[in-house]
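Researcher: Structure for this, please.
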Amino acid sequence: MCLKAAAMLIKRIVKNFLPYGYICYRERRKFFRKYNVKSSLDKSKYKGFKPAGGFGNKLFPCVDYVLSGTKIKIKNIFEIGANFAQDADFLMECFGLSPKDVYVFEAHPEIFAAIKKIHSFNAFNYAVYNTEQEITFNVFPLDYRSTGWSSIHGEGGADSLAVKVKAVRMDKFMEQNNIGEIDFLKIDVEGCSYEVLEGFGSRLSDVNCIQIEAEHGRNNFPDNRVLYDEIEEMLKSNNFELVEFHRNGKLTQSDSFWVQSKCIK
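Model: Predicted structure, token format:
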């Protein structure tokens, strides 16, 4: 093995074992230097709430790739499973958009009410899925150790409460709201990513890039969960290319970033 290849291998190994927060911190510094920008994200607006998953730091590599490696001109942002919409807020600042360009979907009724207080985004209290009907959604209280664990799946036990919410397909939503293209799509739906993608139908080809959370390991999840391999197959069959991948959650989950082949420089 040549020295260059050995160095790259060592770098990859070190990256996989470094704390993800440290990696995000380094990416943030690199991003600010490269584009001479600073996110004006005002975290004080979230005071009194418990946003899950940070404030957009893990999205720096995705934003960097869009700006430097694609032909995409970001005109809108869609976040499905938005929590308090802090990631959509971060993306809006990075791409220099306004609230009218941001669409967020959050099925948890109380978190949705908080979104309406905090933001002026296009916000919808829907569970995005592969069907159009009222469904059961399992919510955790706002003071729970993670506000991001609410989901369609009912593994919360006594800690969660079942509520009825409206489920929507994104192909129908795009048609009804005259959405031609989605430039940046973020999906974090606790085990239902495949069903969300199914709900796009043929309109999946009208999405330019996707940052998505997925699950790994059949032994880690019930049989009703569709795992990463099938999500990967669906995205590849719809002409998306994988450009960023990172395992997290004790390797049971991953965050990956996909871009339409036609959009890559």
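Researcher: Any notable elements?
Model: The mean pLDDT is 87. The longest strand covers residues 240-248.
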